Automatic annotation (TrEMBL), chains A, B:
Top-level division of the source organism's lineage: Bacteria
Protein name: LacI family DNA-binding transcriptional regulator
Species name: Rhizobium oryzicola
Keywords: DNA-binding, Transcription, Transcription regulation
Pfam families linked to this entry: LacI (PF00356), Peripla_BP_1 (PF00532)
Cross-referenced InterPro entries: HTH_LacI, Lambda_DNA-bd_dom_sf, Peripla_BP/Lac1_sug-bd_dom, Peripla_BP_I
One annotated GO molecular function: DNA binding
Residue ranges occupied by any HTH lacI-type domain in the UniProt entry: 20-74
PROSITE patterns with a match to the protein in the record: HTH_LACI_1 (PS00356), HTH_LACI_2 (PS50932)
Amino acid sequence: MTCAESEPALTPADQKSPLITLTDVAAEAGVGESTVSRVLRNHGSFSEKTRAKVMAAVEKLGYVPNKIAGALASTGSPLVAIIVPSLSNIVFADVLSGVTKALEAKGHQAVFAVTDYDPAKEEALVAAVLAWRPAAVMLVGLEHTDGTRRMLHASGCRVLELLDIDGEAIDIAVGFSHHEAGRQTAARLLESGYRNIAYVGHDLKHDMRSGKRFAGFLEGLANAGLELAEQEIRDAPSSVSEGRAGLADVLSRGRPIDAVYFSNDDMALGGYFHCLAERISIPDQIALMGFNALDICRHTPQPIASVFTPRIETGRRAAELFLEGAPSQVVDLGFTIVAGATI
Amino acid sequence: MTCAESEPALTPADQKSPLITLTDVAAEAGVGESTVSRVLRNHGSFSEKTRAKVMAAVEKLGYVPNKIAGALASTGSPLVAIIVPSLSNIVFADVLSGVTKALEAKGHQAVFAVTDYDPAKEEALVAAVLAWRPAAVMLVGLEHTDGTRRMLHASGCRVLELLDIDGEAIDIAVGFSHHEAGRQTAARLLESGYRNIAYVGHDLKHDMRSGKRFAGFLEGLANAGLELAEQEIRDAPSSVSEGRAGLADVLSRGRPIDAVYFSNDDMALGGYFHCLAERISIPDQIALMGFNALDICRHTPQPIASVFTPRIETGRRAAELFLEGAPSQVVDLGFTIVAGATI
DNA sequence: CACTTCAGTGGCAGCGCTGCCAAAATTTTC
DNA sequence: GAAAATTTTGGCAGCGCTGCCACTGAAGTG
């Protein structure tokens, strides 16, 4: 739960002037401390004349309020913790943007950390951020260690789980169903007449959500009495190169393949590049389908078919729900299959 | 400097149990508060027996130390603020990863914010983060408003400016010279025999660093007595679609062009897609050169020539310098021109 | 054996702010 | 014009922790 880590080296720059405090401002303005506090937070009542005096003193002294002290004195904290699996995937950066944009307008500050898709690290990071007594903790996905869950419950702060709704939410979940996305993708491919379908994916053990899509996809095929013609699951994070190598591998096996479902757009883009390089005609010889509908895949010579996911919206909505003090709930923001030129 | 924004709504979840404090742990363990504090921070001396008692109490009560209180009591703060222009550009996400990875090992916590390339917003965000009394503030680039500089100076905390060294640093700067990168890119293109060179760029007013590369590039051409054959500067953030449209535009003007320098790899990738779509042969008909050496551009059918920039390394190094308490300095991490199949 | 030494410990005063309460100033009311 | 209602204000006790200092008792010293 708590480990005695060795001290972080604190501010090395020695404070030249002992920083201005609220008391200094009060003295300068010739009013009481609480009055300054009220004016600065625009909270409670005070006269216009007082406000002017205080603001003048603040300006003159270059006072910057100390939120650390403020947060300690008032019990609530304006901090929101955001813990994401990775930043190299644009998906999480999008979520982060959405969250911070909605938060900053309300005077909240984001503290954040990256888990590298490691649940144990997530647990450690949750412990670390809880020490800051955040008003809310945002996590990606619904899968967490028991320790993480326990700490989160005990902390009493709001918990927002993002980008997934397939499972049990701790408090609020905002996202969409990956399982359903996988299912519908399969349905769409079948509708278009493809029957020899391959899957090229990445590291399922760590990326739970791509695993859920894969399961949904298989279910979609099974419903039509079909199964995957080929599959290649790379033991690495998703990337263009893995996607390219993965498709190359699948095709090298010689079995006829008329469509390929990739675990996401990075992988699909790699597959697309493989086809371009090998002069494999798309979609005549082979159809490609990705996931996320990244901007980049909309601007390839032939736009790659994909599934649009509301990433920024997920972040924004989560922040809003938290700000509103919404009750525990699961918000399904849905997804949209976008046809490209590749199916 | 400071504005009276209206209150953020604080923790809406009502604390069920008045959270465990260090005093509770001390009582449970039958020792003094300072002893618990010493054990938990592994600081000062205490017996193994005491340590065990304290840890047992911590475990039993599920105590999570309150760093807000800790930071207030000790003057230094283990918070580091990171302010980036954007998150949609992978470059800044990389820097962020580098920074947080190096920081978390040392018990520091990152707080972060996004400016959207707006210096005024940067100033507001600096004011906001300074209220958390961070041990360091990390910013991208060397261009800041006077207000930002003034606040940063007055704060007395370390200031790290990342990804640029062409200019006056406030405290520590870590990065490389964009001007020089532009110059060397021009030299390289000239070396390869190209003479009818075009530039396709994005929004220079906001992205200072791409402006510096452009200036360096022009200088490189001028040194050889040349100037740009064509140029197209999009009034938008860099993206694949802008790059594609930009190149299309330049080529439509009918002037012979044998090489194109793009403001970055996103733009270059767009240009590459345009060539693929229009069956323009690369590099026979036209050579392409980007900037950043993104992974994705290394895996296109023909790898796109680019300039590798040490992004994660910049973040890591900056964090290390801060942790070491290094003196003010400018660290040039350099860059590397990487040949692709497109020049 | 009286002396110093020092690891191990507890007490308590803040850190800079907010929240509460009561006092003071102002306005309203009859 | 005095009383009542209201607005504005200041004082001060914490928030939960750390840093300092003083204290303990066991070990080391001559």
